[in-house]
């Protein structure tokens, strides 16, 4: 908060703004008229059946995918065909992938310091110090000198979170962070995410972990066939959803 | 009477005599069926017919030193041809007083290669840097001379094993970075660059090296203004590099294809640019993955250097070939080729064993 | 918002689309400039040396002989004809090499996997020796060290007084075909086609009824053997062999395989077979062991396990690298020039180039031939791969 005030930004204005975003893969319409405002510090959980465009949506927010129509503004910077803007947004937005995407040829510590050193031009010593702090926060400082291949899936995903945090992002995107994990490892990753949420990070998570959603989400979004079908607080979303499709979807994933 | 419960456990026994020890092994691997036995005996008889006489010829009756062919025992191999000309086979026409410089080149090469290939020695990055950047410069300076009072040795005086190694080494070192660029270009999203790289790669991969060497030797001088004169050795090298880089590109491309797209995406999401993500994350993994493939193309290149004979350079094979025409040594062809073949084989077999070991790990 | 204030050029530079266009235009300009420079230099160099350009030389008379020609050729024929003679000689040795290397390579590859220790060691020694020695050296070995020390024609080695081996090459008997024999040959061909149709029909029949056509093997053998024999009898065909005979200092008659061809052919076969053996071995090894066990558990005989389960799967892995080896063999046949076998490179990029000096045209034509062969094969290979991957789905 202090940082924002110092930089003269209004903490209540939306930090991410999507206006009528449309995207096609070839002739397949994946995102249809997406409108979404995210305020600073807000936690949003997106769910929906596979192929509904939820991953594509958050991948558009850091320009991993290009949208064809509409406007995406992240922290005052519009994502357009200007490479400088894209670079700027990517520096401020961290992303955690389903498949972790750690760099297997680098140690855990090197994974965390690579971007700060080469993108932010931080001194190596300093980057390592920051990295160790974040590794402590995700509770794996003792694995710093191991290679990703030597860690369990849950540990790898926590390293991936620490790696993103090392860039000191304003916003974190999570793309199904627990879908590739064995059940016993899901909790250790979710715990770290809950902690991060409690510290006031702006987060957009694509996940089917409804327990997690109930604990941290400020807002739930249900997507189907490339559209936002329902948008509500967790309370309303889980207890009295409006749309039939939401009900059906919730019925399917909560029935077990 | 004992009850079933009290029955003793059956102690472990040795397997039957015909399935253990040397006999068991022979039964299984040599004489499993009558047909197998027939094969085994036929091969054994064939070897009996060939090997002892060869041993007799190559070692027992061989002559190891001598001034000319007439010094040799007619019944045996005339290794004197090889020993008498060994210096020429290794150094070509390099002045005898300067051969220490060639030895220095060999030593540098052995040092860096040993450092890179033996896993126990640390500091691989340093070794790689030395090998890729320092070694080529120092080697060229030492071999060609012209500084610190070292007399200049023109490249037409170079020859033998040394030229083979020089061509293979420089061909390799230059084609690696060019190959990497071509591989990246072939996977580029820019159609013009992709088309250009694909065309380049397919062109050189589609033609025999010998035509490339002819081209480098006959056409290259036509392509440049008359004032620029290329050394014959340099022309051969240019041809080899053009050819080799196309093959290298395909090997590297194979590695790039094996790296999941998520790696580059993770780099992008951290704010890294194309070259940063390629140089720091994707290429190190891709190249490490295809080291066996790189070693294999190097083996192919090493064998292919013998083709420079057709444009009149003296590599190991062509200097042996030239020696065979010496009237003093007429009729030593078998010995000469066996020697040259053995040297090439030693290098290639060693490297292929090394690459197979890498593949297994 | 602030990017509106940036100057136009900076904005374009930061736009990925414009940046891509810029790089591509840059590359095109560089290539055009390079080509222009080279063409310019070449033209002025050629002019200075008094070498003409263009393809007129193809119709000029060549003025040199060639030791082996598959089509009619002598000194008075044109350089264009030389090109054709060289091309045919390249194709001849490539064809021979491909056939024999395939047979030897498959044998060695299978032997390498044999349970017989002696056989598999022998195959692996063969593979490791011959693929690790330069092909050119092997060609020289066969040409100079083996064929080169054979006796003169008068002291030829002979087999049954019909096959003669000497320093001038190998002389073999060659059949003289009279009209009856020609008819027999055509009948034989027709019978083979008929048998192929029968095999196909038998397969269908077997699929539909579970049983082969009764006496199918006997029927097929009699078609192939009896019908041509009867034709021969009716047409009064006589097979005569032209036996090579010593006339003066050389043999004449029969078929002569030049030592150049023989050396190149042996070396290409033995060298490429070593690589093919490795291709075959890794292809067979790539078939999961479970496949063999599953097939055996279903009660298939070992021979059927191989032909129905292992080989079809292995061939998918084997065929792409195998074609690659064939291409290598064709390209490697250009080493002919080192021992004087009159292949394309030797008579065209060698002799013709020396006589005309038109390096650019000659080398471009030579390269175009090999490039055409390579590209055609790789297009076919891509089609094959697409077909295989379609089948997999």
Automatic annotation (TrEMBL), chain B:
The record places domain ABC transmembrane type-1 at: 161-355
Subcellular location, in the record's words? Answer: Cell inner membrane; Cell membrane
**What is one GO cellular-component annotation here?**
ATP-binding cassette (ABC) transporter complex
- Where it mainly occurs, coarsely classed, is membrane
Record protein name field: Amino acid ABC transporter permease
Regarding the membrane, this protein is recorded as: Multi-pass membrane protein
NCBIfam families for the chain: HEQRo_perm_3TM (TIGR01726)
Alphabetical UniProt keywords: Amino-acid transport, Cell membrane, Membrane, Transmembrane, Transmembrane helix, Transport
Q: Which GO terms describe its biological process?
A: amino acid transport
Q: Which SUPFAM superfamilies match?
A: MetI-like (SSF161098)
Record field: transmembrane: 30-51, 100-118, 130-152, 158-185, 206-224, 278-299, 306-324, 336-354
Q: Superkingdom of this entry's organism?
A: Bacteria
Task: Report the Pfam families cross-referenced here.
Answer: BPD_transp_1
Instruction: Please report which protein family the annotation says this sequence is part of.
Output: Belongs to the binding-protein-dependent transport system permease family. HisMQ subfamily.
A GO molecular function assigned to this protein is: transmembrane transporter activity
From TrEMBL, chain C:
**What is the membrane topology listed in the Swiss-Prot or TrEMBL record?**
Multi-pass membrane protein
Q: Which CDD domains match?
A: TM_PBP2 (cd06261)
What Gene Ontology cellular-component terms does the record carry?
ATP-binding cassette (ABC) transporter complex
Tell me the Gene3D superfamilies matching this sequence.
Answer: MetI-like
Q: Which residues form the ABC transmembrane type-1 domain?
A: 87-381
Question: Where is the protein found, in the record's own terms?
Answer: Cell inner membrane; Cell membrane
Parts forming coiled coils: none
Instruction: Name the domain of life.
Output: Bacteria
State what protein this is by name.
Amino acid ABC transporter permease
Which species is this record about?
Endozoicomonas numazuensis
Organism classification, top ranks?
A: Bacteria, Pseudomonadati, Pseudomonadota, Gammaproteobacteria, Oceanospirillales
């Amino acid at each position: 908060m202090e940082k924002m005030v110092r930089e003269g930004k209004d903490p209540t204005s939306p930090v991410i703004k999507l206006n009528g975003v449309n995207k096609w893969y070839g002739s397949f319409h994946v995102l249809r008229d997406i409108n979404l405002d995210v305020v600073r510090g807000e936690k949003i959980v997106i769910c929906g059946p596979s192929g509904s465009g939820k991953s594509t949506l958050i991948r558009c927010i850091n320009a991993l995918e290009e949208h064809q129509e509409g406007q995406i503004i992240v922290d005052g910077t519009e994502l357009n065909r200007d490479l400088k803007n894209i670079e700027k947004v990517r520096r401020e937005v961290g992303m955690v992938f389903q498949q972790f995407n750690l760099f297997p040829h680098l140690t855990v510590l090197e994974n965390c310091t690579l971007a700060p050193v080469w993108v932010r031009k931080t001194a190596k010593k300093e980057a390592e110090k920051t990295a160790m702090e974040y590794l402590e926060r995700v509770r794996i400082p003792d694995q710093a000198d191991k290679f990703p291949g030597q860690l369990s899936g849950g540990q790898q995903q926590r390293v991936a979170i620490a790696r993103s945090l090392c860039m000191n992002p304003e916003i974190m995107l999570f793309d199904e962070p627990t879908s590739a994990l064995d059940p016993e490892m899901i909790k250790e990753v979710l715990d770290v995410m809950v902690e991060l949420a409690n510290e006031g990070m702006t987060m957009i998570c694509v996940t089917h972990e409804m327990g997690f959603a109930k604990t941290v989400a400020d807002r739930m979004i249900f997507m189907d066939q490339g559209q936002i079908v329902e948008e509500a607080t967790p309370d309303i979303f889980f207890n009295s959803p409006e749309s039939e499709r939401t009900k059906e979807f919730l019925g399917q994933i909560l029935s077990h | 009477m004992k009850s079933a419960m009290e029955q003793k456990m059956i102690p472990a026994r040795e397997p039957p005599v015909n399935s253990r020890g040397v006999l068991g092994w022979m039964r299984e691997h040599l004489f499993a069926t009558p047909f197998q036995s027939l094969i085994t005996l036929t091969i054994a008889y064939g070897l009996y017919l060939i090997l002892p006489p060869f041993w007799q010829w190559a070692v027992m009756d061989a002559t190891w030193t001598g001034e000319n062919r007439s010094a040799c025992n007619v019944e045996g191999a005339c290794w004197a041809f090889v020993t008498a000309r060994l210096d020429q086979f290794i150094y070509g026409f390099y002045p005898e007083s300067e051969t220490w410089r060639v030895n220095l080149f060999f030593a540098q090469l052995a040092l860096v290669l040993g450092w890179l290939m033996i896993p126990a020695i640390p500091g691989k990055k340093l070794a790689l840097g030395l090998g890729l950047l320092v070694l080529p410069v120092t080697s060229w300076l030492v071999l060609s001379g012209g500084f610190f009072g070292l007399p200049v040795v023109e490249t037409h005086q170079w020859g033998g094993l040394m030229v083979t190694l020089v061509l293979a080494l420089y061909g390799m070192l230059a084609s690696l970075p060019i190959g990497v660029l071509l591989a990246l270009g072939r996977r580029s999203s820019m159609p013009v660059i992709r088309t250009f790289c694909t065309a380049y790669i397919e062109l050189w991969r589609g033609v025999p090296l010998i035509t490339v060497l002819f081209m480098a030797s006959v056409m290259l001088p036509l392509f440049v203004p008359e004032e620029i004169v290329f050394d014959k050795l340099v022309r051969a090298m240019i041809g080899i590099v053009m050819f080799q880089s196309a093959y290298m590109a395909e090997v590297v491309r194979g590695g790039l294809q094996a790296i999941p797209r998520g790696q580059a995406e993770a780099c992008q999401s951290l704010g890294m640019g194309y070259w940063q993500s390629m140089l720091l994350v994707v290429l190190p993994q891709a190249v490490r993955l295809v080291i066996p493939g790189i070693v294999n193309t190097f083996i192919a290149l090493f064998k292919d250097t013998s083709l420079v004979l057709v444009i009149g350079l003296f590599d190991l094979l062509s200097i042996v070939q030239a020696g065979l025409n010496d009237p003093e040594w007429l009729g030593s062809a078998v010995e000469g080729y066996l020697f040259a073949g053995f040297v090439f084989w030693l290098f290639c077999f060693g490297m292929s064993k090394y690459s197979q070991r890498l593949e297994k790990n | 918002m602030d990017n509106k204030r940036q100057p136009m050029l900076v904005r374009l530079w930061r736009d990925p689309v414009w940046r891509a266009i810029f790089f591509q235009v840059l590359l095109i300009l560089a290539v055009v400039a390079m080509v222009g420079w080279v063409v310019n230099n070449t033209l002025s160099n050629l002019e200075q040396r008094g070498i003409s350009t263009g393809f007129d030389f193809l119709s000029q008379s060549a003025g040199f002989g060639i030791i082996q020609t598959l089509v009619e050729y002598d000194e008075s024929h044109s350089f264009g004809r030389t090109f054709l003679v060289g091309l045919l000689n390249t194709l001849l040795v490539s064809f021979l090499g491909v056939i024999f290397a395939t047979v030897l390579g498959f044998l060695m590859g299978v032997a390498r996997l044999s349970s017989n220790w002696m056989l598999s060691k022998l195959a692996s020694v063969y593979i490791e020796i011959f693929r690790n020695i330069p092909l050119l050296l092997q060609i020289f070995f066969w040409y100079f060290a083996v064929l080169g020390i054979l006796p003169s024609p008068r002291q030829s080695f002979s087999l049954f007084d019909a096959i003669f081996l000497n320093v001038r090459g190998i002389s073999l008997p060659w059949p003289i075909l009279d009209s009856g024999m020609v008819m027999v040959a055509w009948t034989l061909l027709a019978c083979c086609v008929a048998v192929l149709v029968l095999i196909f029909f038998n397969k269908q029949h077997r699929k539909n009824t579970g049983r082969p056509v009764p006496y199918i093997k006997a029927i097929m053998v009699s078609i192939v053997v009896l019908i041509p024999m009867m034709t021969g009898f009716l047409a009064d065909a006589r097979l005569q062999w032209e036996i090579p005979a010593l006339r003066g200092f050389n043999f004449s008659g029969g078929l002569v395989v030049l030592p150049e061809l023989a050396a190149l052919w042996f070396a290409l076969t033995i060298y490429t077979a070593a690589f093919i053996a490795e291709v075959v071995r890794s292809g067979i090894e790539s078939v999961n062991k479970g496949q063999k066990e599953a097939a055996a558990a279903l009660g298939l005989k070992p021979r059927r396990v191989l032909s129905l389960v292992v080989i079809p799967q292995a061939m998918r892995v084997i065929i792409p690298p195998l074609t690659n080896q064939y291409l290598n063999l064709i390209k490697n046949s250009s080493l002919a020039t080192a021992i004087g076998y009159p292949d394309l490179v030797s008579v065209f990029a060698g002799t013709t180039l020396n006589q005309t000096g038109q390096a650019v045209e000659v080398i471009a034509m030579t390269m175009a031939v090999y490039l055409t062969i390579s590209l055609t094969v790789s297009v076919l290979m891509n089609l094959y791969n697409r077909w295989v991957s379609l089948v997999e789905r």
